Amino acid sequence: MADAKKDEIKEPTVDGFSVSGRRKKDVSDIVSLLSPLRFLQMTPMGDTLELIHVESRDISKNPYLFSLVHLKPDGIEILYTISPGMSPSKRRVSILRYFINLVSLLENTYETDHVVLLQIIESSLKDLTEYVSATYDDLYAAYDSLKTEHEQMRKKLAGLQSSNDVMGIENMELKSTNDSLVLKVRELEAFSDEVLMLKIQEWLTDHNNEINVGEFARVHKVGEQRVEAVLNKMIQNGMLKARE
Q1: Model-level pTM?
Q2: C-alpha dist (Å) from residue 123 to 46, 51, 103, 126, 127
């Protein structure tokens, strides 16, 4: 039951910001201006033009990582998704870069409040600086924890080796149990996400870049739900690209 929950695909979170301004041209003029940008999907909604930029899709080809821009008569609003495990600060800076480029293209169609835009940029850069520092601190904390755990394990191993001289028979039983546990650990490691990704890549190479989830799961004795979860992870990390 716990493994099934672990393999569930987590939904992305949503964030956004807006800049006030005044639109100087019609929606049709903006559509003509942005039409060369093939990655944008444009949908007029009354007096608002919606721009959708899909960056990645899940295994069902539904938009997963994307942004939605509302070009309103009195300003520009952007909403965007953040995938689980992704830094919100880093994602915001990436979206802000895209937003600034878009505002630059719309220079002749919008008068935007540049003061508000600069405040958003300043706030995002501050958050990113804190993110970089926090990441280093987190990594060092994890390293320190592993170092302490390693020292504890080393002392335990020394104690076991010392006991071996006195308890030969019992040590052999413990060694047999330990060997069995090591084999079980190796079996589990053989089905880690990283190994499963390699097997999927080998499968795609041997099957003309196509994968039948059911057949793959049967051959490698892995649950279909876990295969789909790992495929989604590979797509989100840019290792694979879902077919349109």
Answers
A1: 0.50
A2: 33, 25, 18, 5, 6
